[in-house]
Amino acid sequence: MNRLVQLATAMTAAFSLGFFCHSFITSDKQASLSVLVTTPTEMKLGAFSVSLSVKNLEASKSFYEKLGFAQVGGSMESNYLIMKNEGTLIGLFQGMFEGNILTFNPGWDENAQALEEFEDVREIQKKLKAGTIEILNPADENTTGPASCMVKDPDGNMILFDQHL
């Protein structure tokens, strides 16, 4: 019986807190939201894909085709394929790197078409540095055009910012 009373008390407290927060937010939406939500530094990162390190490119290609992906770039001879299913892009790379990488392509849309306006990878890199994120292979900030940089998230996942324009 004691556990039932504790559960009922906890549920009542949670409901009350939720009701209070809802009332607080809806009474003065703009002021409340600005206090409760922080806006991260906005960055336009471009097309997103996952770059997978694969052991057998042909087997991986066949597998992803069964999931509805179609080849849109790369070649077997080059040991990599870019595959697409609707707005989802994956890269299959054999023998090029270890582990999988999250990839952003500033300047490209999901069809690898150039965007009229985009944030240069060097600007993205400056914002990452300002946010105290360590850059693993920084782009030369005195150049223009194609460049890349990489960071690692807190769990060790690699993230590549790879600009082709």
Mean pLDDT: 82
Give me the secondary-structure category. Answer: alpha/beta
Number of helices: 4
- Bin the helical content: 25-40%
N-to-C order of helices and strands: HHEHEEEEHEE
Report the count of strand segments. 7
Going by CATH, the architecture of the largest domain would be Roll
Which consecutive residue ranges, at least 5 long each, have pLDDT under 50? 3-38
Terminal CA distance reads 68 Å
Shape by Cα distribution: globular
Q: Count the domains.
A: 2
| Biggest sheet: strand arrangement | 2-3-4-1-5-7-6
Task: Round the Cα radius of gyration to an integer and report it.
Answer: 23 Å
The biggest beta sheet, please?
Answer: 7 strands, mixed
Instruction: Say which CATH homologous superfamily of the largest domain is assigned.
Output: 2,3-Dihydroxybiphenyl 1,2-Dioxygenase, domain 1
CATH class of the largest domain: Alpha Beta
Strand content: 25-35%
CATH topology of the largest domain: 2,3-Dihydroxybiphenyl 1,2-Dioxygenase, domain 1
